Protein backbone atom coordinates (compact mmCIF):
# COMPACT_ATOMS: atom_id res chain seq x y z
CA UNK A 1 0.00 0.00 0.00
CA UNK A 2 1.11 3.53 -0.71
CA UNK A 3 0.06 6.85 0.78
CA UNK A 4 -3.58 6.58 1.73
CA UNK A 5 -6.31 8.94 0.63
CA UNK A 6 -9.29 8.53 2.92
CA UNK A 7 -13.00 9.15 2.66
CA UNK A 8 -14.69 11.15 5.48
CA UNK A 9 -15.68 7.77 6.95
CA UNK A 10 -12.02 6.77 7.26
CA UNK A 11 -12.30 4.19 4.46
CA UNK A 12 -9.55 4.18 1.82
CA UNK A 13 -10.53 6.05 -1.34
CA UNK A 14 -8.72 4.28 -4.18
CA UNK A 15 -10.51 6.26 -6.88
CA UNK A 16 -9.39 9.56 -5.37
CA UNK A 17 -5.82 8.23 -5.03
CA UNK A 18 -5.64 7.21 -8.71
CA UNK A 19 -7.09 10.54 -9.83
CA UNK A 20 -4.53 12.46 -7.77
CA UNK A 21 -1.74 10.28 -9.16
CA UNK A 22 -2.83 10.91 -12.76
CA UNK A 23 -3.19 14.68 -12.21
CA UNK A 24 0.15 15.08 -10.41
CA UNK A 25 2.27 12.68 -12.46
CA UNK A 26 1.10 12.74 -16.09
CA UNK A 27 3.26 15.76 -17.05
CA UNK A 28 6.47 14.31 -15.63
CA UNK A 29 5.69 10.90 -17.09
CA UNK A 30 4.84 12.23 -20.57
CA UNK A 31 7.98 14.43 -20.56
CA UNK A 32 10.16 11.41 -19.70
CA UNK A 33 8.31 9.39 -22.33
CA UNK A 34 8.86 12.05 -24.98
CA UNK A 35 12.54 12.30 -24.03
CA UNK A 36 12.89 8.54 -24.53
CA UNK A 37 11.17 8.76 -27.92
CA UNK A 38 13.47 11.58 -29.04
CA UNK A 39 16.54 9.63 -27.89
CA UNK A 40 15.44 6.61 -29.92
CA UNK A 41 14.76 8.77 -32.97
CA UNK A 42 18.21 10.32 -32.58
CA UNK A 43 19.82 6.89 -32.39
CA UNK A 44 18.01 5.88 -35.58
CA UNK A 45 18.86 9.07 -37.47
CA UNK A 46 21.56 7.34 -39.53
CA UNK A 47 19.00 4.90 -40.91
CA UNK A 48 17.26 5.88 -44.18
CA UNK A 49 13.97 7.63 -43.41
CA UNK A 50 11.82 4.97 -45.10
CA UNK A 51 13.16 2.38 -42.59
CA UNK A 52 13.56 4.62 -39.55
CA UNK A 53 9.84 4.96 -38.82
CA UNK A 54 9.29 1.21 -38.83
CA UNK A 55 12.41 0.67 -36.72
CA UNK A 56 11.21 3.28 -34.22
CA UNK A 57 7.88 1.52 -33.68
CA UNK A 58 9.65 -1.84 -33.41
CA UNK A 59 11.88 -0.48 -30.64
CA UNK A 60 8.93 1.10 -28.79
CA UNK A 61 6.95 -2.13 -29.07
CA UNK A 62 9.94 -4.09 -27.74
CA UNK A 63 10.19 -1.76 -24.73
CA UNK A 64 6.45 -2.07 -24.03
CA UNK A 65 6.63 -5.86 -24.38
CA UNK A 66 9.57 -6.06 -21.97
CA UNK A 67 7.71 -3.97 -19.39
CA UNK A 68 4.69 -6.27 -19.70
CA UNK A 69 6.86 -9.36 -19.21
CA UNK A 70 8.66 -7.82 -16.21
CA UNK A 71 5.34 -7.17 -14.52
CA UNK A 72 3.63 -10.41 -15.56
CA UNK A 73 1.88 -11.87 -12.54
CA UNK A 74 2.32 -8.65 -10.57
CA UNK A 75 -0.36 -6.65 -12.31
CA UNK A 76 -3.73 -5.85 -10.77
CA UNK A 77 -6.74 -4.68 -12.74
CA UNK A 78 -7.51 -1.06 -11.86
CA UNK A 79 -10.30 1.18 -13.03
CA UNK A 80 -11.12 4.70 -12.02
CA UNK A 81 -13.78 7.29 -12.60
CA UNK A 82 -12.39 10.72 -13.50
CA UNK A 83 -13.36 13.44 -11.04
CA UNK A 84 -14.15 17.04 -11.88
CA UNK A 85 -10.51 17.89 -11.11
CA UNK A 86 -9.05 15.21 -13.39
CA UNK A 87 -11.55 15.39 -16.26
CA UNK A 88 -9.56 17.93 -18.29
CA UNK A 89 -6.37 15.91 -17.73
CA UNK A 90 -7.91 12.65 -18.96
CA UNK A 91 -9.31 14.43 -22.03
CA UNK A 92 -5.85 15.87 -22.76
CA UNK A 93 -4.20 12.46 -22.35
CA UNK A 94 -6.67 10.73 -24.66
CA UNK A 95 -6.64 13.42 -27.37
CA UNK A 96 -3.06 14.73 -27.29
CA UNK A 97 -0.64 12.39 -25.55
CA UNK A 98 -1.76 9.05 -26.96
CA UNK A 99 0.39 8.11 -29.94
CA UNK A 100 -0.71 4.89 -31.62
CA UNK A 101 -1.32 3.40 -28.16
CA UNK A 102 -4.36 2.11 -26.32
CA UNK A 103 -5.45 4.21 -23.33
CA UNK A 104 -5.12 1.17 -21.05
CA UNK A 105 -1.50 0.74 -22.16
CA UNK A 106 -0.70 4.40 -21.42
CA UNK A 107 -2.14 4.23 -17.91
CA UNK A 108 -0.42 0.90 -17.25
CA UNK A 109 2.95 2.41 -18.19
CA UNK A 110 2.23 5.50 -16.08
CA UNK A 111 1.41 3.38 -13.02
CA UNK A 112 4.49 1.19 -13.56
CA UNK A 113 6.73 4.27 -13.85
CA UNK A 114 5.28 5.60 -10.60
CA UNK A 115 5.73 2.28 -8.78
CA UNK A 116 9.41 2.11 -9.76
CA UNK A 117 10.23 5.36 -8.00
CA UNK A 118 11.59 5.46 -4.46
CA UNK A 119 8.85 5.78 -1.86
CA UNK A 120 9.87 9.29 -0.82
CA UNK A 121 9.65 10.38 -4.49
CA UNK A 122 6.18 8.84 -4.74
CA UNK A 123 5.19 10.78 -1.63
CA UNK A 124 6.24 14.02 -3.33
CA UNK A 125 4.05 13.15 -6.32
CA UNK A 126 0.92 12.38 -4.31
CA UNK A 127 1.42 15.50 -2.17
CA UNK A 128 2.75 17.61 -5.03
CA UNK A 129 0.72 20.75 -4.32
CA UNK A 130 1.84 21.04 -0.69
CA UNK A 131 5.40 20.04 -1.56
CA UNK A 132 5.69 22.78 -4.18
CA UNK A 133 4.30 25.37 -1.75
CA UNK A 134 6.86 24.30 0.87
CA UNK A 135 9.70 24.54 -1.66
CA UNK A 136 8.44 27.98 -2.67
CA UNK A 137 8.40 29.11 0.97
CA UNK A 138 12.03 28.02 1.40
CA UNK A 139 13.15 29.72 -1.83
CA UNK A 140 11.30 32.98 -1.08
CA UNK A 141 12.18 32.97 2.61
CA UNK A 142 8.53 33.28 3.69
CA UNK A 143 6.62 31.98 6.68
CA UNK A 144 3.67 29.66 6.20
CA UNK A 145 0.62 28.38 8.01
CA UNK A 146 0.36 24.58 8.15
CA UNK A 147 -2.62 22.41 9.07
CA UNK A 148 -2.18 18.69 9.70
CA UNK A 149 -4.54 15.82 8.96
CA UNK A 150 -5.26 15.49 12.70
CA UNK A 151 -6.64 19.05 12.82
CA UNK A 152 -3.61 20.66 14.43
CA UNK A 153 -2.58 24.04 13.03
CA UNK A 154 0.81 25.75 13.20
CA UNK A 155 0.95 29.47 12.46
CA UNK A 156 4.03 31.50 11.53
CA UNK A 157 6.06 28.46 10.49
CA UNK A 158 9.53 29.00 9.03
CA UNK A 159 10.70 26.04 6.92
CA UNK A 160 14.43 25.55 6.43
CA UNK A 161 14.56 22.13 4.75
CA UNK A 162 12.53 19.27 3.28
CA UNK A 163 14.54 16.08 3.62
CA UNK A 164 13.97 12.36 3.02
CA UNK A 165 14.47 9.95 5.90
CA UNK A 166 17.71 7.96 5.85
CA UNK A 167 15.80 4.90 4.61
CA UNK A 168 14.25 7.06 1.84
CA UNK A 169 10.72 6.01 2.80
CA UNK A 170 9.27 9.38 3.76
CA UNK A 171 9.91 13.12 3.50
CA UNK A 172 10.13 15.37 6.53
CA UNK A 173 9.62 19.12 6.78
CA UNK A 174 12.18 20.68 9.12
CA UNK A 175 10.83 23.93 10.49
CA UNK A 176 10.76 26.43 13.32
CA UNK A 177 7.49 27.51 14.94
CA UNK A 178 6.44 28.85 18.35
CA UNK A 179 10.10 29.03 19.41
CA UNK A 180 10.55 25.31 18.78
CA UNK A 181 12.19 23.19 16.12
CA UNK A 182 9.65 20.84 14.59
CA UNK A 183 9.79 17.89 12.23
CA UNK A 184 6.61 17.19 10.28
CA UNK A 185 6.00 14.38 7.83
CA UNK A 186 4.97 15.65 4.39
CA UNK A 187 2.10 13.16 4.05
CA UNK A 188 0.56 14.37 7.32
CA UNK A 189 0.30 17.97 6.10
CA UNK A 190 -3.22 18.80 4.91
CA UNK A 191 -2.80 22.43 3.81
CA UNK A 192 -0.03 24.98 3.33
CA UNK A 193 -0.62 28.72 3.08
CA UNK A 194 2.12 31.21 2.24
CA UNK A 195 2.24 34.27 4.51
CA UNK A 196 3.52 37.75 3.74
CA UNK A 197 6.11 37.49 6.52
CA UNK A 198 9.81 36.80 6.25
CA UNK A 199 10.98 33.48 7.64
CA UNK A 200 12.63 33.63 11.06
CA UNK A 201 15.02 30.75 11.56
CA UNK A 202 17.59 30.74 14.38
CA UNK A 203 21.12 30.02 13.14
CA UNK A 204 21.40 26.91 15.33
CA UNK A 205 18.29 25.42 13.65
CA UNK A 206 19.99 25.47 10.26
CA UNK A 207 23.11 23.60 11.37
Observed structural traits:
207 residues, elongated, 5 strands, single chain
Layout of strands and helices, then pairs:
Elements: H1 14-43, H2 49-70, H3 87-97, H4 103-115, H5 119-126, H6 128-140, E1 142-148, E2 153-164, E3 171-177, E4 180-185, E5 189-198
Antiparallel strand pairs: 1-2, 1-5, 2-3, 3-4
Helix pairs in contact: 1-3, 1-4
Rg from C-alpha positions?
A: 21 Å
Describe the main β-sheet briefly. Answer: 5 strands, antiparallel
Q: How confident overall, as mean pLDDT?
A: 86
Uncertain runs with pLDDT below 50, 5 residues or more? none
Distance between the termini: 35 Å
SSE string, helices as H and strands as E:
HHHHHHEEEEE
Helix-residue proportion: 40-55%
What is the count of β-strands?
5
Overall outline:
elongated
Strand content: 15-25%
The helix/strand class is alpha+beta
Q: Helical segment tally?
A: 6
Q: Order of strands across the biggest sheet?
A: 4-3-2-1-5
Q: What would a concise description of this structure say?
A:
With 207 residues, this protein is of the alpha+beta class.
Structure description:
With 207 residues, this protein is an alpha+beta fold. The protein is 47% helix and 20% strand. It has a five-stranded antiparallel beta sheet with strand order 4-3-2-1-5.
Amino acid sequence: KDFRILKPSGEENLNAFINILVINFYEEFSADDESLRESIKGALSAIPEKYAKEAFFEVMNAITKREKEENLGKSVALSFKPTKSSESVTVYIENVLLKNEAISSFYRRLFIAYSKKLKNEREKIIHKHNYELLVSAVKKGLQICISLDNGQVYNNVSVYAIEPAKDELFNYVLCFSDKKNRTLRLAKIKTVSLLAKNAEIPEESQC
